[in-house]
Specification:
homodimer; 335 residues; alpha/beta; 434 Repressor (Amino-terminal Domain); Rossmann fold; six-stranded mixed sheet; 12 strands; elongated; DNA-binding
Chain lengths: 335, 335
DNA sequence: AAATCAGAGCTAAACGTTTCGCGATTGAAG
DNA sequence: CTTCAATCGCGAAACGTTTAGCTCTGATTT
C-alpha cells in the first residue's frame, strides 16, 4: 500500500542501504540526494516508524501516568510535558488511574508493555516495587509531585512544606490564632507535607495546635464541603481556614456560599491552586500557586536527559517553589 | 535482553510458530499449554508489541487531537475516550494544538506518521483537505464537537442550536426581552450554531434582535470579561445575558464580581458547561450542560467499530442533547 | 485393513527498517 | 604511474513477530 524504502530504492536505482543512510542523516552524493528527495516526494514515502522501532528498540514515546484526568493541576502539568516532548520528536501516551491504586499498577504495566522509552508518573499507592523492578531494567523513570520512600529515582517535587508554612504564617502575622486546616488523606505524600508546614509554623510561633481544627478530607470536592461545614459548626469556629488542595477549596467555597459565611469578615480563607477560581469568587481568594508549567518542563527534560544516557547527578531531586498569591480573602485582625 | 518468543520456544522445545499460535488464542495440547505458560512465567516473557505491529500493521493506538489541553470540556471528553479505548486494549496518543490552526495540521500529520489505527479529532481550522486525504487511505477518523463542511466522515456533535434555543427561551418565558449574548468567534462551528439558536428563538417569539446586544468574544476568559463589561456599560443594558462557552462564562463572572452587579436582580445569567463552577458562584448559576461522558464514549466506540471494519451507516452523524441546569441566577420578571 | 480426516506442530517467508563490513570509486600524494 | 586514504554505496543479516501451507500422528470410518 504505502511506499516503502524499497520503492524509493527502486525508483532511484540506489540500494536500500543508501536510502536508509540518507534518511538518517548520512552523507550521499549531492546528485543522489536530489534523486532520493524527488523519489520520496513522488511516492509520498514516509518512514515506517514501527519497523524502525523494531530495529532501533526505540518507540520515541513517553508514557505519562496521572492520578486523575479531571484534575486541572495534573492536566496542566501534562500539557507542559507534552509541549517539551513533542518538540523533541517524542509523543506521549497518557493514562490516568482514577485515584485507584490497583488501576495504577495495571496502567503502569500497560505502559511498560507498550515499550515506551521512558515513564513520567505521579504516583499514589504502593507502586514502589513495580517501579524499582523497571528501574533495574534501566527504563528512565521520573516521579512527579510525590516522592516514594525507598525508591531511588529522579523526582520533581513542590516545596509543600514551605508552601503551607508561608500560607499559615500569612494568617498568623495578621493576628489569627485559631486557624483551621482542611488537609488531605494520610496516604498522599503532598497531604502529609502540607500538614507538616502547618504544624511547624505553629511551633515556630509557639502556638499550640487545637486538634479539632485539623479536618481530614479526601482531596475531593465533597470532603472540602463537609470539612468546612464541620469547622463552622464548632462552638468556637476558627477565624481562618487553610485548604490544602484545589478540589477541597472548591467544596469549601460551596459550603461558604450556602452558609452565607462572609469572607473575610466571618472567616479568612486561603485556598490552593487555581488562578481563575481565585478571581471568580467574591472576594477574590488568596491562594497558594504551584509552578505547574515548570513542573512539567522539568519532568520532561529530565526524562529526555536520561534517555540520552546522561546520568549526571542521578537520582536528582528537584524542589520547586510555590507562591502565595495574596488577594482579599484574609482579614487583618490586628489593631 | 528481554525474553523473546524464541527463548520460549527453546525452553519448551516447541517451535516458534506454536508459541505464537498459543499467544494468539490458537489451540495447543493441554500439556504444551502448561509448558508454555511455565516458560512465559519463568522467562518473564512479554510480547514485543512493536514486532507484532510490524507484521499485523496495527499499532493498537488511537490518536486524539484536541484544541487545547487547559480546557476542561475537552479533557473530560478525552478522559472518557481513554476509558473506553483502554478497555479494548487500545492506547491513546494525545495531542493538543493550542488553538493554532497551523499547529493543528502539524500535529495531525504527527499522528498519521505515528501510524495510529484511528484518529479522533476536535477540529478547528481548514484541516478538511488533510482529513479527506487520510480518509482515502481508509484510516478511521472521527470528528467530535465540530462538523467540517464538505468532509464525509463520522461526526459526533452536540445539539448546540437547541441548547441555545432552550436557554434563551428559558429567559424569554420569564419575561426577559433584552437578552444579551456573548458569543464565540465566526470560525468555530459551535459558536455559529449557538448563535443560530439565539436568533431562531427570537424569531419564533417574534422578538427583534438588537445587534448591540450581540457581543463577539474569542471563547477565552479575557473576552468574556470584556464583553460583559461592554454590555453593562450600554445606555440600556440587557436584563439577562447568555454566555456560550465555559471560559467566557468565567470571564463574565469575574466582571460581574468586579462591577458588583447583583445576580439575578441587576442581571440574569445563563452560562455554559462546568458544574462545579455553577455551584461555587453566588447565587448558583443556571447553565447549559453538555453530555461530555457520552461524547467521549460515542466517539471511542465509533472509531473502534470502524477499525473492526464495520462500516454500517457510514458516515454517521450523532447529535447529543444538552441539558439546561436551572439554578438561581435567572430572575422571573413576570408580574 | 485401508482410506479418510482432524488436529497439532513445524518450516520458512515475510513485514520495513538499520547497520556491519566490504568493495568500488575518486582524487591527492609520492 | 602507483599508492593510499577517504568517501560513498551495496549486500546481507538481523530485529521479533505472524501466518500460509505443509507434515505427522492417531483416531474414525467404511
Amino acid at each position: 500500500m504505502a511506499a516503502t524504502i524499497k520503492d524509493v530504492a527502486k525508483y532511484t536505482g540506489l540500494s536500500i542501504a543508501t536510502i536508509s543512510k540518507y534518511l538518517n542523516g548520512g552523507n550521499v552524493l549531492e546528485e543522489n540526494r536530489k534523486l532520493i528527495e524527488e523519489a520520496i516526494r513522488a511516492l509520498d514515502f514516509k518512514v515506517n516508524e514501527i519497523a524502525r522501532g523494531l530495529k532501533t528498540n526505540k518507540t520515541m514515546t513517553i508514557g505519562v501516568l496521572i492520578p486523575d484526568f479531571n484534575n486541572l493541576f495534573f492536566t496542566t502539568i501534562v500539557s507542559n510535558i507534552e509541549n517539551v516532548l513533542i518538540k523533541n520528536g517524542y509523543s506521549t501516551i497518557l493514562c490516568d488511574y482514577k485515584n485507584d491504586i490497583e488501576l495504577e499498577k495495571e496502567k503502569f504495566n500497560f505502559l511498560v508493555n507498550k515499550q515506551v522509552d521512558g515513564i513520567i508518573i505521579i504516583p499514589q499507592g504502593d507502586i514502589g516495587g513495580y517501579i524499582k523492578e523497571q528501574l533495574k531494567k534501566n527504563i528512565p523513570l521520573v516521579l512527579v509531585d510525590r516522592a516514594l520512600e525507598d525508591v531511588e529515582c529522579d523526582t520533581i517535587l513542590v516545596d509543600n512544606m514551605n508552601a503551607s508554612y508561608n500560607a499559615v504564617e500569612h494568617l498568623i502575622t495578621r493576628g489569627h490564632r485559631r486557624i483551621g486546616i482542611i488537609r488531605g488523606p494520610d496516604n498522599i505524600f503532598t497531604s502529609i507535607e502540607r500538614l507538616k508546614g502547618y504544624i511547624r509554623v505553629h511551633k515556630d510561633y509557639s502556638m499550640k495546635i487545637d486538634e479539632s481544627l485539623v479536618k481530614k478530607g479526601d482531596n475531593d470536592v465533597e470532603s472540602g464541603y463537609r470539612c468546612l461545614n464541620e469547622l463552622m459548626e464548632m462552638d468556637v469556629p476558627p477565624t481562618a481556614v487553610y485548604i490544602t488542595n484545589y478540589e477541597m477549596t472548591l467544596g469549601a467555597i460551596m459550603a461558604i456560599n450556602e452558609r452565607n459565611v462572609k469572607v473575610p469578615d466571618d472567616l479568612s480563607v486561603i485556598g490552593f491552586d487555581n488562578l481563575h477560581i481565585a478571581r471568580i469568587v467574591k472576594p477574590p481568594l488568596t491562594i497558594v500557586v504551584q509552578p505547574m508549567e515548570q513542573i512539567g518542563e522539568v519532568a520532561a527534560n529530565t526524562v529526555l536527559k536520561r534517555i540520552k544516557g546522561d546520568m549526571s547527578n542521578y537520582p536528582s531531586m528537584v524542589r520547586l517553589k510555590t507562591e502565595l498569591m495574596i488577594n482579599q480573602s484574609v482579614k487583618d485582625l490586628r489593631g
